[in-house]
Design goal:
EmrE-like, mainly alpha, 12 helices, globular, single chain, EamA domain-containing protein, EamA_dom, 292 residues, AA-Vitamin_Transporters
């Protein structure tokens, strides 16, 4: 795979991740559907879409392999934490917390697994995380509900572990389908075990539609694409590039959901993207191209 093709596919995956934040926030934050129902529909839709594609190609969905324990468990933690957090957090802010946790998890997992990121990548990651921290630090009009932040941090750890597990995927489409097939009933467990909320209301058709699109398209197909490109990147690189998602989600939240935009958000976004660019060596490549 050429470098240009890899960059294009990674960019497409990042857009899908950002779209999930927008869809979830519009549905759950807008009161169109409750958080747990959104997570369940998202998992079921993803499982159906991916399984249909695998079976259409006359392949099997490997639901009984031992590695499903890690993949499906991490995906379930992500799906539930993600939906619960977006009841109270804006799309961009939620994505910032999520991928900050993803970054730390993937860097730590990569180092434990033998990845040795160069100093530039550590510095870039630190700068990007400072940008995220600046945005979510309680001050002025921006404050983060503690329980929602905790749910999103848990989702970030889940997604980080899920991404690390995906580096060994030999059939990305089939393995993502199997993970979603297990995540669907696992997401149902909290509904069966926890008492019903007295404030819960029936989902609207709009909320259901958003959940299905999130599950079948931006999650199912987006995650299969992510599993396909993961083996071509070091864990520290794949963790770093995902820090672009909060900036995309914040911009989309302002444009599509009418969420607020502040100088603090702009500054934090610039710092985050600058850290990513430095960590990936973008400035060095630009200087090299100019010198040539």
């Amino acid at each position: 795979m050429s470098a240009a093709r890899l960059i294009g596919l990674v960019s497409l995956a990042m857009l899908a991740f950002a779209a999930n934040s927008i869809l979830n926030r519009a549905a759950v934050g807008g009161g169109e559907i409750d958080a747990l129902s959104f997570a369940i529909l998202r998992a079921v839709s993803g499982a159906i879409m991916l399984s249909a594609l695998v079976l259409a190609r006359r392949r099997r969905v490997p639901v009984l392999r031992p590695q499903r324990v890690v993949g499906a468990g991490a995906l379930t933690l992500y799906l539930l934490g993600f939906s619960v957090a977006y009841v109270q957090i804006d799309a961009g802010l939620g994505a910032l917390i999520l991928f900050g946790a993803v970054q730390v998890t993937m860097f730590a997992g990569g180092v434990v697994g033998g990845d040795r990121p160069p100093a530039r990548r550590w510095i870039g990651a630190a700068v990007a995380l400072v940008g995220l921290g600046w945005l979510i630090w309680p001050a002025g009009a921006i404050s983060v509900p503690p329980m929602a932040a905790a749910a999103m941090l848990a989702a970030g750890v889940g997604w980080g572990v899920y991404s690390l597990a995906g580096r060994g995927a030999t059939d990305p489409l089939a393995e993502t389908a199997a993970n979603f097939a297990w995540a669907a009933p696992l997401c149902l467990l909290p509904v069966l075990l926890l008492p019903a909320s007295p404030e819960a209301s029936p989902p609207t058709s709009y909320g259901v539609a958003l959940a299905v699109v999130s599950g079948a398209i931006t999650s199912g197909l987006g995650y299969a694409l992510w599993y396909a490109v993961l083996p071509r990147m070091a864990p520290s690189v794949s963790g770093l590039v995902q820090l672009s998602v909060p900036v995309i989600a914040a911009a989309a939240g302002v444009a599509l959901l009418g969420e607020g935009l502040s100088l603090r958000m702009l500054g934090a976004g610039a710092l985050t993207l600058g850290g990513i660019a430095y960590g990936l060596g973008a400035f060095h490549m630009i200087r090299g191209s100019r010198a040539s």
